[in-house]
Amino acid sequence: MRDQIDGPTQSATENPEAAQPNPAQTRRFGPLSAIPAMEQPDVALVGKPEYAELLMTTVRRRARIHGRLVGLAAAIPLVLMVVLWVLHQDAIAMAVTAVAAFVVFLRWMGIGPLARTYRAVIPLDGQSMTIRFGPDAFDLQGPGDRVRFPHSRFRAIQVEPETITLRMRNTLITFPRELFPDTAIDYLRARLAGHDDVAAPPPLPSLPPLGQPTAQVTAGPDTASQLAWAVTWRSNRQLTQLNAIVAVTLVLTAVVVGGERGLAAGAFAAGVIILVVLAARLTAAVIDFARMQRGFTAYAADGDVLATRFGPDAFAVRTAEMHSHIRYDRIAKLTVRRHTVLMTHGGRATAYPRELFPDTAIAHIRAANPSLL
């Protein structure tokens, strides 16, 4: 039960020394074209050796501060629970335990008010990174991807001399300070404060289309929901056994602590814990699904065009908010279902419409990365 900290993630073009697939397995797909350079960027930044340590130091410091606050918040119900047990207020003590366990469970699931995920956008030494600001979003482009960040997702901005951190609900992303001019920071702060009297930058152009796509699909009204449900179902199904173990452990603890009244307390605790676990699982699933649906709607809204193109060692995916190259050897897990393809890469799980991955492409990915067989 701790905050997640994501370090720098290599893109598809950042690891040329990685193992290459067998040439006999790559003849069907030609090399990928480079992602078109950003037009008229506001800032062009070249990575320096000190960026990695500087940004990760900021991320670790924020994680420690939040961890201490969470520890302080957790100590209050813990002390209250012990006092109630000493005073033989078993029912109230179990209620406090249930509430505390519920909050801890949500945080462990990565959702709820106490959960935090920390990420850092780190340009590696010598790599170029460009950014362009628009009235409703900004585009950020690195060697292997181009991503659009809508301003409406941001909840807070924290500016330091060397770094800037933007919070999107429970996720905090730290960038080099040089990427954000003072005018851009002032505009973001005005947007967060709800002010409309600040001059807006010119609109951003659409992301360049994917040339010669292998597959292309237009999202329908249910596409985002299908993708969100696929990810939510997998993550919640994997926790079933763990939840059962936790429930049994808590019941046995109540029996031991209850002493001679342990049997009655254990029976009461069993009912409470089962209800709490079921409520927590249901709440977590609903919250997780809503969060996932918001995220998938950003690039798979009704009418949006999604496209993929497969190369010998990576594939390109283009949505309304992203154009990225993903290496096959960076894929940790691949699950193919009737309507979706679930994939874990860079430490994160996502889903794509099944139509974007022809059978030949699935076979090629598994041949290039035998660990997925």
Structure overview:
- With 373 residues, the protein is an alpha+beta fold.
- It folds into two domains: 34-207, no CATH class; 209-372, no CATH class.
- 40% of the residues lie in helices and 22% in strands.
- It is built from seven helices and 16 strands.
- Strands 2-4-5-6-13-12-11-10 form an eight-stranded antiparallel sheet, with no helix packed on it. The chain has a five-stranded mixed sheet with strand order 1-3-9-8-7, with helices on both faces. Strands 14-15-16 form a three-stranded antiparallel sheet, with helices on one face.
- Strand 11 and strand 12 (314-318) form a beta hairpin.
- Helix 1 runs antiparallel to helix 2, helix 2 packs parallel to helix 6 (262-300) and helix 4 runs antiparallel to helix 6.
- It is globular and about 70 Å long.
- Mean pLDDT is 80; it is low at 1-27.
- Keywords: Membrane, Transmembrane, Transmembrane helix.
- Residues 1-26 are annotated as: Disordered.
- The chain crosses the membrane at residues 69-86, 92-109, 242-259, 265-287.
- It comes from Nocardia pseudobrasiliensis.
- This is YcxB-like protein.
